[in-house]
Design brief:
CATH superfamily of chain B: Glutaconate Coenzyme A-transferase
Oligomer: heterodimer
Strand order of the largest sheet of chain B: 4-3-2-1-5-10-11-12-13-14
CATH topology of chain B: Glutaconate Coenzyme A-transferase
Mean pLDDT of chain B: 95
Structural class of chain B: alpha/beta
Number of domains of chain B: 1
CATH topology of the largest domain in chain A: Glutaconate Coenzyme A-transferase
Helix content of chain A: 25-40%
Strand content of chain B: 15-25%
Helix content of chain B: 25-40%
């Protein structure tokens, strides 16, 4: 049954050095505040899993939290490179980063298989490209009924999944609205804990019968963090701050300016409220 | 009508938009493809169905999205599905007419590289990676690519194939129709290229007004071939230019307005 906790307490209790952790949110509802709390708590040697690493993983990688990244598209959407990710891959700074690279279709299928309790995912993919040459977890199998050659990847089963949602009720049931990405799959695939930060805690979710709701008995912890997805967005609460994404390009290009920004905005930032509160969003 | 002033980028986006027909179901990449697909929707193809990999089906954005999952896409969509459903039912299920992609590099067979320049383990440049493109490239019934024409993009030999075009030129294994025909058109700021029906090598089939063969060769990293009957692209109409400029102006205003 979901426990109501502070974000600080939830990260302290459930995220350990060496864990595989998936902070999901497909361009929307990206759990920035939770990622920054992991940075503040100084977690190390994490295997970070995420389809679209985005700025939050750039920050975590640049601050040395990760030893491995499992991903399918690692850029700053509409802007360009993730410079901290590139520096880690190209130069090993601040530490070498092993990468396991997939396509979106593969990762989406792999989360789905993880949620479904299957050992692997099967799909029609990786045809005619070089990704199977560089990623050892991509294999091919023949369909036992038609003989068609299909791609297979192992199910994603992170130790901990962390996502952001609009609302939880007081019992810890969670509602997601808008672009829902792979958050439900990631939470159900998690081996040890599913942590959810939310914009608000309400008496009743007012969810339609087919809404995307995680029942409280599959949620480990709920933390109220208004603005917790900023500078990504929360449908119905605040918009994506595209200018922050553009500004990140210059901030993150240089190691010193990156470290100075992190020191000011994250390390010395508010410890138990959101990144968004820090930026006057919440 | 007096001749209109326009840029090479505008010609590219307008030529790319004309490739989409009304009612086409189009899986849209971010950037140049998204501009072209929305221009088509706002001009000659009002019933084009725009699908973005974030799960939005039938998006009708008023401004161009910066990311593949801007709120604008979801708010204007017919429906929004999860990302696994998007890739499983809608793309892999064979429901996409056209995948509209951009690229960092491409070769003479329209194979795409968005992964790495140099050695994979010791890259010279680490690019963002494949995202949705590796499976869009094979599951959509056909592929349009739009990209600015330069020697950095049109390369003789690529270090990595992220998304298959026409491979080494051999016929595609279409698996009983579940794998599409691959790239049928590449639209640049200089010209339009299409694969040769026999060899599948890209051939220039139309030059944009004012572009010369020499310019195209100069910006292409291999000896480029030209079709026997080389066409000239129709220049932009006043309406196309107005709609495109309004779209860009709205987009700039919307993205600048958020701080």
């Amino acid at each position: 049954m979901a426990k109501m906790m502070s974000l600080q307490a939830a990260i302290a209790e459930y995220v350990r050095d060496g864990d595989s952790v998936a902070l999901e949110g497909f361009t929307h509802l990206i759990p920035f505040a939770a990622g920054q709390e992991i940075i503040r708590q100084g977690r190390k040697d994490l295997t970070l899993i995420r389809m679209t690493p985005d700025l939050i993983y750039d920050q975590m990688i640049g601050m040395g939290c990760a030893s491995k990244l499992v991903f399918s598209w690692g850029g700053n959407p509409g802007v360009g490179s993730l410079h901290r990710l590139r520096d880690a891959v190209e130069n090993g700074w601040p530490r070498p980063l092993e990468i396991e690279e997939h396509s979106h279709a593969a990762m989406a299928n792999a989360y789905d298989a993880g949620a479904a309790g299957l050992p692997f995912a099967v799909f029609r993919g990786y045809i005619g490209n070089h990704l199977p040459k560089v990623t050892s977890t991509i294999k091919f199998i023949d369909c036992p009924f038609t003989g068609e050659r299909l791609a297979a990847v192992p199910a994603l089963r992170p130790d901990v999944a962390i996502v952001h949602a609009q609302k939880a009720d007081r019992a810890g049931n969670v509602l997601f609205e808008g672009i829902v990405g792979v958050q439900k799959q990631a939470c159900l695939a998690a081996r040890r804990a599913a942590i959810v930060t939310v914009e608000e805690i309400v008496d009743t979710l007012d969810a339609g019968p087919n809404a995307v709701v995680l029942p409280n008995w599959v949620v480990t912890a709920v933390a109220k963090v208004p603005g917790g997805a900023y500078p990504s967005y929360a449908h119905g609460y605040y918009q994506r701050d595209n200018s922050s994404y553009k500004q990140w390009d210059a901030i993150s290009r240089d190691r010193d300016s990156f470290l100075a920004w992190m020191q000011e905005h994250v390390i010395q930032g508010p410890t138990d409220t959101a990144a968004g509160a820090n930026h006057g969003v919440a | 009508m007096a001749s209109l002033e326009y840029t090479a980028d505008e010609m590219m986006t307008i030529a790319a938009s004309r490739a989409l027909w009304n009612g086409a179901v189009c899986f849209v990449g971010i950037g140049l493809p998204s501009a072209a697909a929305n221009l088509a929707r706002l001009t000659h193809a009002p019933d084009v169905v725009l699908i973005y990999e974030s799960g939005t089906i039938g998006a009708k954005p008023d401004v161009l999205p910066l990311s593949i999952g801007d709120g604008e896409l979801c708010e204007t969509a017919t429906t929004t599905v999860s990302v696994p459903e998007m890739f499983r039912y809608w793309l892999q299920g064979g429901r996409i007419d056209v995948g509209f992609l951009g690229t960092a590099q491409l070769d003479r067979y329209a194979n795409i590289n968005t992964t790495v320049i140099g050695d994979y383990a010791q890259p010279k440049v680490r690019l963002p990676g494949g995202g949705g493109a590796p499976e869009i490239a094979t599951s959509a019934k056909e592929i349009f690519i739009t990209v600015r024409h330069s020697r950095r993009v049109f390369v003789e030999k690529m270090d990595f194939i992220t998304s298959m075009g026409h491979g080494d030129g051999s016929p595609r294994d279409t698996r009983g129709g579940m794998v599409g025909r691959g790239p049928t058109r590449v639209i640049t700021d200089l010209c339009v290229l299409e694969p040769d029906p026999e060899t599948r090598e890209l051939v220039v089939t139309a030059l944009h007004p004012g572009t010369t063969r020499e310019q195209v060769q100069e910006q292409t990293g291999w000896p480029i071939r030209f079709a026997g009957q080389l066409a000239t692209t129709e220049p932009p109409t006043r309406d196309e230019l107005e709609v495109l400029r309004d779209l860009h102006a709205r987009t700039r205003k919307a993205h600048a307005g958020q701080s």
